[in-house]
Design a protein that fits this description.
Blueprint: H1 2-9, H2 14-34, E1 44-48, E2 52-56, E3 60-62, H3 73-78, E4 83-89, E5 102-105, E6 109-112, H4 121-131, E7 139-143, H5 154-165, E8 171-175, H6 190-196, E9 206-210, H7 216-228, E10 234-237, H8 242-247, E11 254-256, H9 261-275, E12 280-284, H10 290-299, E13 303-306, H11 308-313, H12 315-322
Parallel strand pairs: 3-4, 3-13, 4-7, 7-8, 8-9, 9-10, 10-12, 12-13
Antiparallel strand pairs: 1-2, 5-6, 6-11
Helix pairs in contact: 7-9, 9-10
Length: 325
């Protein structure tokens, strides 16, 4: 049934398709609730530095951007994901960038210029309180800054999100790498990470999400900082690519999907060389098959996420990967 609907949704404009998928996923999770289906953690124990554990049914998770407002994650877990990243959430609600702001491009890729559209921290909290009791599985909050917050005040936005959500989620992903919020990628610096570390919780893991477009020296410098920071548990590699979007003639947005896979794979391997097993790596970017997921694991990813392939191929792909992953 889900595969049939997925094929139909691809005939509609992307945001229309997402709105319809959102409706049916919320309906699906409500039926699961009515019939008493409670999502229990699985057999895989993931050790996350410094002293955190994730128990998951599979190592495959859903990346941020699909469940922006933390209102569908029970359904997504029931479909087979082992963990889900919700958000990106910002302290204040915002509409995001003007449409059109998402485009399907070959081969099964997306150009995304959404701009952190979300309901804001207050409604996000309400959703987490409502739905968190339905599932017992890792849910990570992807947090960012509001578009109108100056870069020099950005740390305050991240601090608000951490303080408001730390009792409701399993951990945090610090988004400083989206290409769709002006100035956000400028926060990918050691100086900003130094100011960020003191606001991170001691009792929850925190991951830094980095862009694929960083130079090798910039990337390794940031990984070295993560390695030496006790409060940062690891990295999420990678976000969408601005450079790959430009190559396809788009003056805005970042590309996700298969063309990004080789770069993401390379970044995971580079991070493994720096971390030597001392930090957790979540690999994401162009994962479209079981073979891709296994390659991510081979080069150093402890956990793997997808997004774009789920949009194109639907829940069938989740089942194919999680049978052996």
């Amino acid at each position: 049934m889900f595969s049939f609907f997925s094929s139909l949704l691809l005939k509609l404009p992307p945001e229309t398709a997402h709105a319809i998928a959102r409706f049916f996923l919320r309906l699906y999770q409500l039926t699961q609730k009515v019939f008493g289906a409670y999502f229990e953690p699985g057999p895989y124990l993931i050790k996350v530095p410094p002293q955190h554990d994730f128990k998951v049914r599979s190592r495959l998770g859903l990346a941020a951007g699909f469940d922006k407002n933390a209102e569908m994650f029970p359904a997504l877990l029931h479909l087979g994901f082992g963990f889900v990243e919700v958000g990106t959430v910002t302290p204040l609600p915002q509409a995001g960038n003007a449409p059109p702001r998402i485009w399907r491009v070959a081969p099964e890729a997306l150009i995304n210029h959404m701009g952190f559209n979300n309901v804001g921290l207050k409604e996000f909290q309400k959703n987490l309180r409502k739905y968190r009791s339905w599932v017992n599985a890792p849910v990570l909050a992807n947090i960012g800054k509001n578009k109108n917050t100056p870069s020099e005040l950005a740390i305050g936005d991240y601090e608000q999100c951490v303080q408001a959500l730390q009792g409701l989620v399993s951990g945090f992903v610090i988004n400083i790498s989206s290409p769709n919020t002006p100035g956000l990628r400028d926060l990918q610096s050691v100086s900003f990470l130094q100011s960020l570390v003191p606001i991170l919780p001691n009792d929850k893991p925190s991951f830094i999400k980095l862009a694929p477009d960083l130079s090798k020296s910039e990337f390794e410098e940031l990984c070295q900082f993560v390695l030496n920071s006790e409060r940062v548990s690891g990295v999420v590699l990678t976000n969408t690519s601005r450079s790959l979007s430009e190559i396809r003639g788009f003056s805005q947005g970042g590309l996700s999907g298969p063309p990004l896979f080789a770069t993401s794979l390379d970044r995971v391997e580079m991070a493994r060389a720096v971390f030597q097993g001392r930090k957790t790596i979540i690999g994401v970017g162009g994962v479209s098959s079981l073979e891709d997921a296994l390659k991510m694991r081979e080069v150093g990813a402890d956990l793997v996420e997808m997004y774009t392939a789920f949009v194109y191929k639907g829940p069938k792909l989740i089942r194919e990967i999680t049978k052996t992953f």
